């Protein structure tokens, strides 16, 4: 069966960490952003984690509103909601960069007739920081965890995007940088690529789509 749609993850695929992972012992995403926030606010990383412990996972899964997420977390940190929002968005933009080569490739695939889509776990502020409208307006559908009330690897996330694409799973290719997010897609019959870097991805894409 010919591939008709390609689903991209955002963090770690379309948005790349700017700094080598080994600096943070394999936890570049979390340690860089959380370390930055703790330093800016003037607390330890452990205190930062304690402050976001109840709100962060709830925000990613859309179990609390954006307003509530900002209000509760900023109160825990004893800073203003405005300052918290500004710093958090700044942190994501400081430690992530848009994968320009992959965007170029994705838009070229769209010109060739492929549907390009998004399935990503984001909370409200990371979405604002990492997903500018000018880059993502060409993707459709866009499924974001905080907007649908569940996150990967919940298999219902994959079923939802299959339904929105109106395609058979074997007509879909999913690209993600985490093995545990790849497994549910495979289980449903979706073709997958585990992203490591652009060179590896482009080679596998070429083999699959040729």
Q: What is the strand tally?
A: 7
The CATH superfamily label of the largest domain reads HAD superfamily/HAD-like
Order of strands, main sheet, comes to 5-4-1-6-7
The end-to-end span amounts to: 12 Å
**How many separate domains?**
2
Examine the secondary-structure arrangement and name the CATH architecture of the largest domain.
3-Layer(aba) Sandwich
Mean pLDDT: 93
| Major β-sheet annotation | 5 strands, parallel
pLDDT under 50 segments (min length 5)? 22-30
| Total helical elements | 12
Q: Please compute the radius of gyration using only Cα atoms.
A: 18 Å
Write a brief structural summary.
54% of the residues lie in helices and 13% in strands. The protein is built from twelve helices and seven strands.
């Amino acid at each position: 069966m010919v591939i008709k749609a390609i689903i991209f993850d955002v963090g770690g695929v379309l948005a790349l960490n700017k700094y080598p992972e080994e600096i943070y012992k394999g936890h570049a995403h979390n340690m860089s952003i959380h370390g930055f926030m703790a330093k800016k606010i003037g607390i330890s990383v452990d205190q930062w984690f304690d402050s976001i412990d109840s709100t962060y996972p709830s925000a990613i899964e859309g179990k609390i509103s954006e307003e509530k997420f900002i209000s509760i977390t900023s109160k825990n940190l004893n800073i203003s909601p405005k300052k918290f929002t500004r710093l958090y968005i700044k942190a994501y933009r400081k430690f992530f960069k848009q994968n320009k080569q992959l965007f170029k490739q994705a838009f070229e695939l769209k010109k060739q007739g492929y549907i390009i889509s998004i399935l990503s776990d984001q909370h409200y502020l990371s979405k604002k920081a990492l997903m500018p409208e000018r880059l993502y307006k060409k993707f459709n559908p866009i499924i974001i965890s905080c907007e649908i009330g569940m996150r990967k690897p919940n298999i219902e996330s994959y079923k939802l995007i299959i339904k929105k694409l109106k395609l058979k799973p074997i007509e879909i290719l999913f690209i993600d940088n985490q093995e545990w997010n790849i497994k549910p897609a495979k289980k449903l019959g979706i073709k997958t690529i585990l992203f490591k870097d652009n060179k590896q991805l482009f080679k596998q894409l070429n083999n699959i789509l040729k």
